[in-house]
Amino acid sequence: MRLGVAALVVVQLCLASLSSCEPQLVSSVAGKVADAAAYGAALVVALANGTIIYVEDGIRWVSHTGTHGTPVAVEPAYPYGILVLTSRGWLGLLSPMSGEATWCELRVDVNAIKRGEYSIAYANGVVAVLVGRNVVFKALPSLEDAGPRDHVLNRYVKCLLSRNATLALLLGINTFCHICLENDERLLVIRRVGSRTYLVKAEVERVKDVGVDENFSTIYIARWGKLAIYRVGGDGLTVVSNVTFPHRAGEWRSYGFSPGAKFFHYTYLEGGKLMLMLVDISHRNFKRYSLATAPSGAVHSLVDDEGRVLVLLGDPVSRNTTLLYLDPATGARWLGSWRGFARMKLAGDYVVVITANEASLLRLRGVEPEAKPLSLTVKVVDDEGAPIPGALISINSTPLARTSEDGIAVMTLEPGLYVVEVSSPSHKPSRVMLSLSESTSLTVRLERLYLLEVMGIFDNGTVPPLCHIAVLRDGEVLWSGEAVNCRALLNVTRGNYTVSVRAGGELAEGSWAVEQDTRVVVTLRGTYRVVIRVSGEEGVEVENATVIVEAEDGEVLAESRGAECVFNLPTGTYRVIVSAPGYNQTALLLKVDKQLEVRAVLKRIEVSVGQEEGEQGSPPPSWLAALCAGLAVATAGLLAFSLLRRRRHTASPAVKPHPQTREK
Fold this sequence. Notes:
Number of strands: 53
Distance between the termini: 151 Å
Oligomer: single chain
């Protein structure tokens, strides 16, 4: 059911575009676009939800990638169909008639696909898929291996196949060396697709791009300052000639070879203009073109083998992208503008422009430049819709007109691409990139500016001499910097702002609504100077005192030593512990809400008289005294008993034998 609704929406958008847009627009599809390509005069669009849509005079078919992952790239492969690479590393071939798909798993690093490190090259029934550090060759329509895969240490950046698809040129990064990467060192390889036989394998420095002719006999290398031309032979590369570029690569905004290396081009800035240098390689000549006012955003450009150049100009202010088309025979002109930032693909006489929410197919042939002057009417109003008289209108940085009392200015201009700038006192300037192809009316709304004064102050009434102030709106930093005397003046539009102030390790922030000139005062948690002087009872300062400051929860906040200790403390209640050798420890409870000077008096530890006369130590325990007394009594008893026995033995007479015993 969801598919039917999506298809219906696409048909309506496509038919509306064909009936109301410029003749060169063939078809357009709206939706969350992952990629798109041209297959002849058909537009093939891959949506981020896995849907593939084939549009040619309406929708021909709709297909799905299903469980193979969401599509990340689509490319034409004549006459077999459309190639699709998915986020899970599957390659599909979709029939141009029905959308029926054949799938094969590439077995590559899907993380490289997530990083955007992939591309597809096709020629004569062979497709080369670059994913990260690997290249895989497949034959169509079977999607079987067409040859052994290849790899480099880092990643591949480009692949070109010869017309008969027997040879492949690979350009890769074969190092992680930081200096080598800064020097644009590349590995250049020419190999046979089916056998991995290398004709060329060389490390080349300062490489921006590489091209090769249809026969793979001549290689062109765009280096930092020159175009190097080499002949491919049995001995590798042979230098043919070098052509010096008028501008070094550091000045290029975009660059590249045509598919058959017949042309090389680059864009650059000069005198406030975006310039194009077109190099005709076969004739070794340079042609210089002025394209538009210097863009402030990204530039993307392509050149074909006829020397036609397409340039996409992004404008970060209006968030629009404009497509310029340069035909050397007829000059430059615009083809259209798209909302959001865009990329493009060139396919013969068609170009596909891809944004996040739209894919468009344009035809290049038959585009004729407009020559008649056109009228541009600009109406300038404020954010409440009231006209602003006297507003200055500048076209391509040149002041041209001021608005009347009705806020309107009318100018006559040639068809082309213009940057319209509108400014007025007390209003935020506006800048719009406009592609003028017919008389146009433009309404520009200028937002009123209000003065926002930001001040930071401590709660103790002092002003920081220097602080850091940041002003944000919707999470985006509008201004951030150091402010002298913690004060900043800004011009801002109406809205809600978050202001943060940091000073002395303290941070405070808040939100304010600005509807008029506003003054914002941000209060920081200030500190007070607390001096603690330590002395004894006799008034003598204690130099070896230790002072510890604790929070109410017991956390130690600061510690200092000496007779005078200085602390900077914010408002609050603190416990101060003061100690010194030979003195009793004391504790103070301080409430800090102003500058304080506190004296802490320590008492000496009292010493007993016995200790003063030399009686050192404490008395023995009672059990030890009892034991000693018992031992003394026992010893005295033994001595007395021994003396008594000896005395009795000395006083007794001698024992005489019994008479009867003697007679016997």
